[in-house]
Amino acid sequence: MDPMRAIDAYCERLGPTFWAEPANAITNAAFLVAALLAWRMARRAGRSGDWGVRALAAVTAAIGVGSFLFHTVATAWASAADVIPILVFIMLYLHLTTVRLFQLPVWAGLGAMAMFLPVSVALGWTLRAALGPLNGSSSYGAVLIVIMCTGAALIWTGREAAGRGLLTGGAIFFVSIIMRTLDAQDGAVCAALPLGTHFMWHLLNGVLLGWMMAVMIRHGAPAAHRGARGRGAHGGDRKHGGA
Q1: pLDDT tens-digit profile of 195-241?
Q2: Helix (H), strand (E) at residue 69
Q3: Which of 48, 64, 129, 215 could crosslink 31 through cysteines, CB 3.0-4.6 Å?
Q4: Ranges of each domain in the chain
C-alpha cells in the first residue's frame, strides 16, 4: 500500500489542501482536553504516579494528534497514525479493566488483550454481514459490544459502580458511532449537511475517553494503592473501636 495515497472519505473534505477539513481537524482538541482533565483528576486523587492512568492519558493525546494528521494530511500513513493509538488505548484499557476492575492476575489481563483482536474481528464480520459496512464503523460496533458485555459482567460480579460506568460509556459510544456512520460521501447527509457529522464523532469520543479514564481513576486503583487504603481504613477502625 502506498503510504502517500490520498484519502477522501468524509463530507467536509472538498479538496487536497491541508485545511480542507477544518471542523474535523480542530475538534481533535477534544482528545487533548480529555487527557489533561484525566491527568488533573488523577493528581487530585493522589494517583499522578499511576502508570496506567498516565499511559491512558498519553495515548488519548496521541489519538488527538494522529486524528488531526489524518484530517489534514489525509494520506494512508496519516490514517495509520490515527488508527494505531486508538487500538493501543482499547488494548491498554482492556488490560487495566481485567487486572484492576475484575482484580484478576496480570496473566489474565495479557490473555484478554490477546483475545481482543480475534474476538473483535469475528464480531465485526458478523455486524458487516448483518448490517452492511456501516461506512467502516462495523469494527467500532464490535468494540461497543465488548464494552457493554464487560460492563454487564462487572455488575454481575458485584462491581456495580464500575459496571454502570462502562455501560454509560457504551451509551456515549453508541451515539458517537451513529455520527461516524452517517458521514458517508455517497449518503444523503453530505448533500443536506456539507459539514457532515464526523466532527461529532471526535467531540463525543473525547467525552467518551475522558469518561472511561474517570471510571478507571475512581474504581481501578492499583493493587498496592487498594492495599494501602484498606490497611489505613482497618487501622482507623481499630483505633475507633478501642477508644
Answers
A1: 999 999 999 999 999 999 999 999 998 876 655 554 444 443 433 34
A2: helix 51-70
A3: 64
A4: 22-220
